[in-house]
């Protein structure tokens, strides 16, 4: 055999070895991919439960936020009502004080001071 024939034989053998190795590698990759898919299929129900729970908690948070906003609005209204009532009571107290001062001013038996606490 000539040198060229040996070179051709070596190249053919190398090509065959490379093809066999590539097919073996592809087979191993397929098996690994199948294993990963099987693992993912086993985990899918757990992930679905976690997603459902997360959605449920998010809904509860949304409801709680809405309730909190409603309570905050109610609190603001009550605070405004309390301020209005306080202003009315302050005004009524001032009017009462003015009436008592006027009564004390015109009463000949007092020296301009309140004879009784109010």
Largest sheet entry: none
Give the overall form. Answer: rod-shaped
Number of helices: 1
Total count of strands: 0
Tell me the Rg in angstroms.
47 Å
Roughly what is the average pLDDT, rounded to an integer? 87
* Ends apart, CA distance between termini: 133 Å
Helix content: over 70%
Order of helices and strands: H
- What class do helices, strands and sheet pairing give? mainly alpha
Report low-confidence residues grouped into runs of 5 or more.
none
How much strand content do the residues show? under 5%
List the helices and strands and how they pair.
Elements: H1 3-106
Describe this structure in words.
There is one protein chain. The protein is mainly alpha-helical. The protein contains one helix and no strands. The protein has one helix at 3-106. The chain is rod-shaped.
Descriptive labels:
single chain; 118 residues; mainly alpha; rod-shaped
TL;DR?
The chain is mostly helical and 118 residues long. Helices cover 88% and strands 0% of the residues. The chain has one helix at residues 3-106.
């Amino acid at each position: 055999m000539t040198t060229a024939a040996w070179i051709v034989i070596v190249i053919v053998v190398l090509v065959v070895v490379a093809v066999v190795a590539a097919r073996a590698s592809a087979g191993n990759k397929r098996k690994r991919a199948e294993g990963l898919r099987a693992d993912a299929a086993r985990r899918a129900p757990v992930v679905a439960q976690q997603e459902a729970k997360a959605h449920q908690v998010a809904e509860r948070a949304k409801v709680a936020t809405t309730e909190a906003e409603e309570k905050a609005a109610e609190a603001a209204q009550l605070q405004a009502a309390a301020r209005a009532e306080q202003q009315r009571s302050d005004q009524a107290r001032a009017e009462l004080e003015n009436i008592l001062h006027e009564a004390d001013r015109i009463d000949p038996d007092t020296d301009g001071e309140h004879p009784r606490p109010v």
